[in-house]
Write a structure and sequence with these properties.
The N and C termini lie far apart (49 Å). The protein is built from 7 helices and no strands. By secondary structure, the protein is mostly helical. Helix 4 packs across helix 6 and helix 4 packs across helix 7. The model has no long low-confidence stretch (mean pLDDT 91).
Length: 115
């Protein structure tokens, strides 16, 4: 990664959300120590690498819940959260609802707009 910022890293992470990653993995990708990564990440994004990654994964899960009929387990794997249980935990923490509630509410809203 270039020393002029973490934008290339953010782009790579966003394109590879399904990859199982630790802070050490991300630091290695960025060619930085975990501490330097944390400092630069916070300066750029306002949060930690793992919180940013989790938020991006939940956002991608929201998109998949809105646009597909994939089961929650498949969505969890596609967004890098591994299991349906893990997805439900992070999804509820971010959105205050379960993936099923989110899907149902989005579909209800879509039906109302189409009417």
């Amino acid at each position: 990664m270039s020393r002029d910022g973490i934008r290339p890293l953010l782009d790579w992470l966003h394109a590879n959300l399904d990859e199982p990653l630790t802070v050490d993995d991300v630091a290695r990708l960025a060619a930085m120590s975990p501490r330097t990564l944390a400092r630069r990440f916070r300066d750029t994004t306002g949060t930690t690498p793992m919180r940013w990654l989790t938020h991006q994964r939940v956002t991608r899960a929201q998109q998949l819940l809105e646009t597909t009929d994939l089961p929650v387990e498949a969505i969890a794997r596609r967004v890098g959260l591994g299991t349906a249980t893990n997805l439900r935990t992070h999804f509820r923490a971010e959105t205050s609802m379960s993936p099923a509630e989110y899907r149902r509410s989005h579909r209800d809203r879509t039906r109302r707009l189409a009417s």
